[in-house]
Amino acid sequence: MSKANLLIVDDDPLVADSLAVFPRSRGYEVSVQTDSNRALRALKDGLRADLLLTDVNMPGLDGFGLLREARKIDPNLVVVMLTGYGTIESAVKAMREGAEDYITKPVDTDHLLPATGQSERRR
Q1: What pLDDT, on the 0 to 100 scale, is given for residue 48?
Q2: What is the DSSP letter of 80?
Q3: DSSP alpha helix (H) spans, the chain
Q4: Residue 5, C-beta contacts closer than 8 angstroms, at least 6 positions apart
Q5: Cis link prior to 106 (omega < 30° from 0)?
Q6: Is the predicted pLDDT of residue 115 greater than 90, yes or no?
Q7: Region 69-83: what's the mean pLDDT?
Q8: Which three-class secondary structure state does DSSP give residue 71?
Q9: Half-sphere exposure of 68 (CA within 13 A, CB side)
């Protein structure tokens, strides 16, 4: 079985790039975007992604909007929401919207492994 392709979206370039280090070291293909609208455009243009890791709070289209729009393009996309400001309400909203997981920053890379496995099984 091939490794999952990940799309990481965070408006902070340092965070986005740091999130990409661990999966790349494990052999995953990783695309990084710092703008949710650009990420959505890349998906529409055929970027293959099995797992979307997206920040919740971003200017413009936030993580919830990105989740909804990305799932219209690919209903099988596994989505994990990331936030530096986690609340119970936000976590419940993420699950109701269809996110597989809701992880607070700083991200413990051990939390990413179950999500990548889920995306590989779904594909």
Answers
A1: 93
A2: E
A3: 13-25, 36-44, 63-73, 88-97, 112-122
A4: 28, 29, 30, 31, 48, 49, 50, 51
A5: yes
A6: no
A7: 94
A8: helix
A9: 9
